[in-house]
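Annotators were shown the component list below and the corresponding predicted structure, then asked to write short factual statements about the assembly.
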Amino acid sequence: MPSSWRSTTKFLTGGLFVAAVFALTLVGLNAVADQSESQASESDPEYTQAGADTCLTCHGGDHHLLQIFEGPHAVKGDTRSPFGQTQCEACHGPGADHAGPLRIGQERPPMPGFGDNALWSSEQENQACLTCHQGSDHRFWKGSAHHQYEVGCVDCHSMHERRDPMSIATIQNQVCSDCHTQVRSETHRAYAHPVRHGEMACTDCHQPHGSGSEAMLTSMTVNQNCYECHAETRGPFLWEHAPVAEDCTLCHQPHGSNNPAMLTRRAPMLCQQCHTRLGHAGVGRTPDDLPGGASPSNFTLGQSCMNCHSQVHGSNHPSGAGFLR
Amino acid sequence: MAGESNDQESTDKKPDTSGFVCERCPFPYGWTGSVLFGLEYVSDDGGDFGSFGGWEEEGFYLGLGADLIYRDQAGRYVDIYADRLGLDSRAVEISGGQQGSYRLSLDYREIARLQFFDARSVYDGAGTDRQSLPSDWVREVSTDQMPVLEDSLRSYDIGTQRESLGVSLDFHRPSPWNYRLDVEHDRRQGTRVQGAAFIFHATELIAPVDYETTRFNAAIGFTRDNWELETAYNLSTFNNRNDSIRWDNPFVGISVGDDRGELAQPPDNQYHQFMLSGSWRHSHRVSVAGQVAVGRAEQDQDFLAPTINPAFAGLSELPRADLNGRVDTRFANLRVTGNLTPRLNTRVQFRYDERDNRTPVDSFVEINTDTYLGQPRTNQPYSFDRWTLNANLNYRISRAWRIGATAQRREMSRTLQEVHDTRTDLYSFQVRAMPISRLNLIASYTHEERSNDLDPALLGPMETPTLRRFHFAEKEREAWRLSADYGITDNLSAGVYYELSDDDFSDTEIGLSEGEEESYGLDLSLGIGEHAVANAWVARESLDATIRGSDFNFGEPWQYRQNDEFLTFGMGVNFDRLPGNWEKARLDFTYARADGELTVERRGAPPDFPDLESRRITLQASIERNITEQLGLRLGYVYGRLVEDDFYRDEVAPDTVGALLGLGRGTPNNTVHVGSVLLRYHFR
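Structure shown to annotators:
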C-alpha cells in the first residue's frame, strides 16, 4: 500500500474515532435523566434522630475514629464542615438503617458510604467529598487518569486523622508509590530529585486531582513546571538552545537517572544525538580518553562537552553563540 | 434545568438536625499534638548520603519538631508543623484563621544540597564571581607541567542551600466568591561546578549561586453547584546576584590578552501570566473543564561586553544595550467528559501551547572565548506552537471486564529548524479485567508514529546530512504494559507489573537510532494483626539506547550503546502498637543498585568503557515509648552506605587531563550511622 494511502487511512481512522467519541460525549447533553441514579436516591435510608451522638453510642471507643474531632472535618463553627452539617452522616450518608434496631439473626445493614460493605460506589463516595471540595483543585477531576482508574478519595486521604497524612511529603510520596511502583524505583536512581528524602512531594509537580496538562502536571507545560524552581533556565536568552525552550525532558529525566543532573544519557553521547557537525563534535570517543589511556581527554572526562560548552541552557553573553560564554 | 431540579431535590431531602447536639463528641478545644526535642548524632562526613537530608557532616545536631493544633469552639485554629529544625534541611508550616472564613499560612523551608565535599581549586575567590590565580602561578600549555598546581590546591565543598518563605491568604466567605493570594520567595545560595574554556583548554570553576525567585499568585473564583470560574494572575521574577564570573586563564594563551575570561551567568527575568479557568457540569453525564492563559516572559539585563580582552577593545560595540527579550505564551486546555450510559465513558481533550519569541534580531560581533575574532553571529529567537487532540473511550462489558481505546494526534510547528512540522499519532488499547475475586488485571498496548517534513538542506553545510535529531526524527514506538494485583488473603496482597517500550527511529542513520526500556516489579503487603503492616517490593529496569555517528561527517563510522540497569529493593514493617508501653515502631530497608554500561564500536575494536556503578543501602528504624501520660521517648537509627564508580570523575585529578584543569572531584564511598534520642511531649 503506498505510504500516502496508509497515512490517509490512519488519519481517517483516527479522525473517525475522535469524531465518534466526541459525538457520544455530546449525546449525553440531551440524554434523559439516569433512571438508576434517581431510583437509588429514592431508596436512600433515613437519617438518624441524634446524629453523631447515635454513632458514638457504639463507636465512641474507637480511638482512630475519634481523631476526627481534632481535625478540620469536625468543626461545628464551619458550616462547610461535616460537623457543621449532618455530622457523621454528611459523609457516610443517612444512617438510620445502620443504627436502627435489628431483628434476631439480622445482619446490621452497612452505612451507605465509606466503610466495610458500604453501598456506594467509589464514584458516589467521591461525589460526597466533591460536594464541599469542588473548585479549582478538582476542576479537571472528571476524566483524569485517577478518575478513570476509579481511585477513591479515601484511597489516598484519611478523613479521621487530625492532620491529613497527604500533607506530609514523606507520607504522601509513600502513598503515591503504592500504585506508581515504577516511579518509586526511579526516585531511587543515583541522581534524582529529593523525593525519597521527603524534601519534595509528588504534588510539587503533579496535581493528583487532575489537571489540563500532560501527566497531570500542576503547570500548563513541562517547562513551566520546571521553571517554578529553576527560573534561571527560563530566559529568554540571546543565544537559545532550542530543545531547552521546547521541553526539559528531552535531556533530563525528572524522576531520576543514572547520570548527573538527571540527564537521560552521559555526555558526549547525550550531545551527539543531535550534534555531529564537522570537527570535534562528530568524533566517536573511546576509552583512550580515560586516565591511563592514550590521551586522557576533556572531550570525555569531567563534564565532557560541558567542560567548554557550559551554557547549554542558553547564554546571554554577546560572544556566547557556541554556549562557551 | 437539570441542575436546578437536582438542587431542589436535595434541599427537600435535608434532614431535621435539631436533635444533632453532639453531646458525646469529644471536641478537644485548646492545644493538641506534640513537640519533639533531643539530640541526633551523625557518625561521619558523608556529603552524598546526607545531601538533602541535612546530615552532611559528622557531629551532634539538635533534634526538634512539632505537630500542634489549637482549636476553639468558634472554629478558630492555629496549626503548626515543624520538622528537623536542628538540621540544615528543615521545614516549618504555620497556618491559622477561622475555618470556613479565612486562612493565613506561612511556610518556611530550607533544603541543603551538598554535591561534592572534596573539590579542589587553585583559585583565590573560588565560589565567587571574581576568581584569580595565585600570585606565583606559572602558566603552561598542559596541567601536568604546571609547577605550582599541587601546592595551590585548596579544598572546597560544593553545594547549595535553598530557603523558601511562602505566605498565603485564602478567603472563603459564605458566598460563592473565594479569593486566594500567595507570595513565595525562594533564595538559593552556594556554589556549583561550571566549565570555562579558552579554545580547547578548559577549567572547572566553582561558580557562585545566588538566585532569588519570587512568585506572586492572586486568584478570584466564583463557585456554584454545577459550575465554577476562576481568574488568576501569576508573576514570577528571577534575580541573579552574579551577572558574570571572571577568571584567570591558567593555561598559556594563544593570543594577546587572553589571560582572563568572562562567563555570563543566568540573567534576571520575569514571567507574567493571566489565566481564566472554569468547569461546568451539565449533569452527571457531561462535564466540561478548561483553561486559557496568556503569558509573557521578559529579559532585559544589560549585556556584558563581547570580551574583556583589551586587544579587542575596538570591537566591543554592541547593536543594543540589552536583549529586550520577549516571549509571548498562549495556552489552552479543554476537556469534555461524558457518561452516555453507566457503562460507557468518553473523554475528548484538546491542548494548545504556543511560544512566540518576539525578541529582536541583531548581529553580534563574536570574540570566541576571549581569544579570537569570529564571524558576526545573528541571534535566532526560537518559536513553536503545538496542539494535541485526544479522544478516549471506556466501555464496561460486564462487572469483570472493561475495555478502553485512545486516539491522539499531536502536531508541532517550529521555526529555525531543519524540521518545521512534526505530526505524531498515537493509538492505545486497554483491557481491565477482574476474572476472579480480588484479582485485577490490566493490559495495554500503545502504538505511536511520528512523521516530519524534514528539509536536510537546512542542516547546514557543516552538519552530517544523514543526521536526524531524535526529538523530531521519524519514529515508531510500541509499548506494552501488564499489571496484576491480587488479594491473596484478607491480609496479604501482591502486585506485579511488566512494561516494555521500543523506539525505532526508522529514518536515522546518524544520531539516536534505537531505544528500548524494560521494567518489571513485584510488591507485597501483609497486615499483621490489627496494629502492624509489612511490605516488600523489588523492581528491575533496563534502558538501552544506540547512537550512531561518523568521525568528521563522512569518516570512520562508530556506534555507542548505552545500557542502564537498575535494581531496587525495599522492605519495611510498621507497628502501630507493641506490648508494654512501646508503640510506633518502624523499620525500613532500601537497596538501590544502578549500573551503566557504555560500549563503543568502531574500527580497531576499542575496549569497553568501565561500568558506571552506584550502590546505596539505607536502613531506618525508630520506636517510641510512653514514659508518662504526657512524655514519651523516641529512639531512632539510620544506616546509610553509598558507593559509586564513575570513570568521568574517578582518578581524574586536577592534572590528569592536560587540557582540563579539573576540580578532582571523586566519587563517594562512605558509611554513615545516625542515632537519635528524642523526647516527645504530648499536649492532650
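Statements collected:
1. Residues 32-42 of chain A have pLDDT under 50 and may be disordered.
2. The two ends of chain A are 52 Å apart (CA to CA).
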